[in-house]
Amino acid sequence: MTDPHRKPSLLARLLLVALVRNHSRIRRELRDSAVETNRLKADIRQKDRELKDNNEELRMLKLEKLERQLEETTKDDRESIHLSAADAHKMTADMLLEVARANAEKDRMKESRDLAHRALERAAHSPSSTANAHSKRHLESHDLDLPSVKKQKHGHKKVPCTHCYQYKLMRKCDDGAPCWPCIFLGTECKRMKCNNFETGTCQKSQCTMAHEDDDFPDASLVPQGHVGQIIGPAPYVPKRVT
Ligand SMILES: [Zn+2]
Ligand SMILES: [Zn+2]
Ligand SMILES: [Zn+2]
Does the keyword Transferase apply (predicted)? Predict the structure, then answer.
């Protein structure tokens, strides 16, 4: 029997060499793979950094875009504010024009009122009214005409003018030609002739048409015809001042 420890067989030696070689190859491979791992890790870190940078860049880009949008919106707003300012300016001008018109209308009305007052004053100083001035009642209702005395004698009703009938002012219409509402409003004062105009021919004691003995001026009389009435309220006519 040979001693295996002192004298290894050739086969055993070969096996050992192969093992050692194999071992160092494996170790080399392990080392390589560790290096590779490290390299990969570094790579990943690098990629991570890059990604972060990219994100940062993206964020910046987004921010910039938002800022641009904001700027544009603000500009639009400013423009629209400019526009509404122009509108407001125009509106104010329209309103001022309206106020001016209203003032002109007010002046016009005041003028016609003054005119009416002046006409009244003239009438109060005319001989016909001074003749009747002894009676206050006379002055109030008949200060512009004489025929009222005759009318009362004949029992005829008051004869409203066509304007006062149309504008529901019969209660304010007096026996004047022109009547007080027509003086105040500056309207034409006309009365309709009764079909039985001649004295003594009209049998209606309550006839509201004009008759010969009412003594209205011929120019203020019109033939009988239809006159409609307004639907709304009567226009404003103040009490007559004497
Ligand atoms: Zn009248
Ligand atoms: Zn009238
Ligand atoms: Zn009559």
Answer: no
Across 182-237, the runs of DSSP E, i.e. the strands, are 191-192, 221-222
**How many angstroms is it from 159 CA to the middle of ligand 2?**
10
Token pair recorded at residue 89: 């300016």
What is the rounded end-to-end Cα distance, in angstroms, of the chain?
A: 172
Distance 167 CA to ligand 1 centre (A): 9
Give the integer Cα–Cα distance in Å for 2 and 113: 159
d(CA 94, CA 98): 6
Ligand 1 centroid, distance to 236 Cα (angstroms)? 13
